[in-house]
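Quick one:
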Amino acid sequence: MRIIEIKNIKEAEALFRRIGVDPYGIAAMAQKTIHVNILLEKQPCKTANIIKQEMLSIGGDAAVARGSVACSISASDILIMGTVKQILTLVKKIEKQPFGLNLIARGILEILSSVSQNEYIWKTSRRKIVLGGKTLLMGILNVTPDSFSDGGFFSSPQKAIEHGLKMADEGADMIDIGGESTRPGSRSVGVNVELKRVIPVIEGLIGKIKIPVSIDTKKARVARCAVDAGAEIINDITALNGDREMAETVRKTGAAVILMHMRGKPENMQKGNLHYDHLMGEITDYLKISCEKALKAGINKNGIVIDPGIGFGKTSEDNYQIIKNLSELKALGMPVLVGTSRKSFIGKITGEEPGERMEGTAATVTAAIMNGCHIIRVHDVAAMKKVAAVTDAIVRA
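Output:
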């Protein structure tokens, strides 16, 4: 006798086939094996009460605030708890009801569809990249004098190009080139300074490597020039909010884009109050709004990857919580990139300097992949390639 953990419908179907269940029975029962918790925030009491009663009527449940029954409070969060089958039954019950329940039904269907999606096609300006099979590695190439881990190491174009070639040989799936440090407390540099740092490196790598090049910038002009030089991915830490021309630049160039969550700016993001009332909820909402902004600007949905922004306006505890709860971002229906490499929240645990944090980085990479990450952004490509390969094997087992 043992407890079986079933993570998705595919696993359930495989188990039923092993048992020898009739194909009709497999189709009928698979959705009953997956339990789902869906949180709706700040809903009117009448909505909370209807959902509570409907879920109870089909054998599920919904947690609501104590005062919602008597409507002694203005709003309540609602935690819907049930199997996929029960949640789908709820949708049918409320999809034609008033009080905005039809919109909630539509939203639930979108979430369930997003959570079940396992593979994505990420379109850059030059190619299509499959995400969802093996985890891809983005090698970090900082051509700055002041980055937190490798500032000054590759500040000359030739050294940077050599390191980019080395990362490609070690198995990087893409290389992210940055000409402006975004470490906590760093200040922005001028456009011309940034261009002088990154363009020679991009031009020096294009033609020598077959993998895509990404430009790590929040400036539209730098992004545009980088794409002209051969880059095909724009990694924007401001999620299109730092430069009014960035969204249009992404659309016109056809580049893929990475949208990251950040509170504040690099120079002040780790100062003041870092408290979040609902950490994952606030990150999810921010990224959802950024994705909607991108789509409204005409950017292809298949060109977007999201990044929760580890270390950008978060405490060390927040960073660990994000990695632990990374799967919540699946509700957005976008592939996820995570960058934990050598960051200070690792050093806070291990007591090590940036260059000594490889083992700690490996632990965060493993956890991120197991919780749904598609791309990891790392300094130590050769080592993390092995970590990712073993973790992928565990996930697929």
